[in-house]
Structures are given as structure tokens and as C-alpha cells.
């Protein structure tokens, strides 16, 4: 939230326009006042301090478990490790670029924003209501969408080169324009007149129809079908998926803790009794706990008498 407020205040400025309506032109830009700039500076320092603290925590975890095991985790563990490292690294680079006075800090700040909000998915996964849906998005992106993109790139490259030749466009920039047109064509946004005005208009229109049938109708519906199967598979075991991700979250948090923190009494979830391990729980209401235990014991005694 501090990062969001700092970003918004950083974009505050006074703009002077000349003209009216669509003809209005910005003629002067004045930066924000000293109070806003001071708040932005404090916010940046807080965000940087948080990134340094989190980066130090991730470095300790990486040092404890090893780099290979650190990035070989799955599910919420991989999401947390990847996004936290990427976010911290982006914040470091953005601050370095700001000190050097380079405009590239804007791109770094934009990337850090999407990484920071994406990191919130790690915390949402712990809830029963939202956890399975985050897992669905994760599985769809890494499996369904990835396979779709691999196949789609083949058709995109082939048809882009074909239309690049038929439109007789110029250089690599013309090829990129052709790629853009094919991508927009997949979404149904294309100009049919542009294809009919070429030298070989019949070939261009025919290939456009083939492209729409194969990509827009076939591949996109295939992607929807794959996502439907993924949704069905995950929703059937939603409770198990939720418990699994909660366990992974606990494991990820535990890996960030030092040995001293793990040995604290409040952080122990098992204890040794006569050489055997027992699960350690915290009593919220001792009276209710004893009552339930007594009722269970009475039921066992009644069963023994009945037997």
C-alpha cells in the first residue's frame, strides 16, 4: 500500500493546457509541492528498506537450502521465491537508476508494480475461498497457456512472413507490423480492405480466412477446452489443493526463519516426549478443551461397557 501511494504521489504534477477539447496541448508542467515530494521520499525509503529486509531474508533462505532446492520448489513456494526475488531486484535497480538520473527508472518502476501486486497472490493462496482459484491460474499459465503459445508461435511466424511478402513491406519494421496485424487478427481486429488492396488480393484474403479458421476458431477454442479440463480437475480436489498450498506456505515461511527463531517455543509445532514426537497445539479455551476431552473419554467408557 505504501508503494502504491508513493507511486501515485510521484506522478502528481500541475499541467497547463492551451486550447480546448481534442485540440488542447500541454504547454507547461510544474512538479508537485515540497510536502508531496517529502512524502514521496519517505515512501521510497520505506519501500527500499522493506526490499532490503526481504532480500536479506531470501538470501538467508537460499543459503540455507541451496540455490537448486530454492528454485526447485513447486506451487506457492515457487511463486513466493520467484516473485519476491524479482520484486526486490527490480526495486534495487530502480533506485540505482534514479540516483544516476536515468529515465529508465520509469520502466523499472512499472515492472516492480506488477511484480509487487503479483506477490499478493502468495498470501491469497492461504484462504479456502481464493486458494484453489489461484492454483487454477497458476496451472493454466504454466501448462495450458504455455502449450498454446508454443503452437501459436508457429502459426504466427508462418502467416506473418506470408503477409509480409504479400504486402511488400519494408525491412524488419515491416515484418513487426505484419506480426502485429496477425496478432490483432486473432482477436478479430483486422482491416479486410487492406488485404483486398494488395497485388494478389485473392491469395491474401484466402490466407486470411485460413488463419482465422485455424487460429481464432480452432486454437482459441482448444485453449478454452484445456482450461476447462484444468478447472474441473482442480475443483474436484479443491480442499486437498488448499491444504497442500497451506502446507507449502508454512514450509516457505519456515525456510526463511533462522535456527534461533525455529527453536523459540512459540514457533515449535512438535515436541519430544520420552523420545517420541507429538504434535504441539495451542489451547485457545482450556475449559472447552477439557470438556471435549472429558466427553470423548465418557463415550469411550460407554463403548467399553457396552462391549
Give an overview of the whole structure.
The chain is built from twelve helices and four strands; from the N terminus they run H-E-E-H-H-H-H-H-H-H-H-H-H-E-E-H. With 307 residues, it is mostly helical. It has two domains: 123 residues, no CATH class; 110 residues. The strands form two sheets. A two-stranded antiparallel ribbon has the order 1-2. It has a two-stranded antiparallel ribbon with strand order 3-4. Its main location: membrane. Keywords: Membrane, Repeat, Transmembrane, Transmembrane helix.
Query: What's the overall geometry?
Result: extended
Biggest sheet descriptor? 2 strands, antiparallel
Portion of residues in beta strands equals 5-15%
Quick one: how many beta strands? 4
Rg (C-alpha, Å): 29 Å
Q: Structural class given helices, strands, pairing?
A: mainly alpha
Mean pLDDT: 76
Kindly state the percentage of residues in helix. Answer: over 70%
Sheet with the most strands: spatial strand order: 1-2
- Please, how many helices? 12
Summed up, the domain count is: 2
Membrane topology: Multi-pass membrane protein
Domain Ion transport: 80-234
Subcellular location: Membrane
GO molecular function: calcium channel activity
Question: In summary, what is this structure?
Answer:
This protein has helices at residues 2-10, 34-65, 67-71, 76-100, 105-124, 131-166, 171-186, 192-196, 201-236, 238-255, 259-262, 286-306, and strands spanning 13-18, 25-31, 270-273, 276-279. The chain has 307 residues and is mostly helical. Strand 1 (13-18) and strand 2 (25-31) form a beta hairpin.
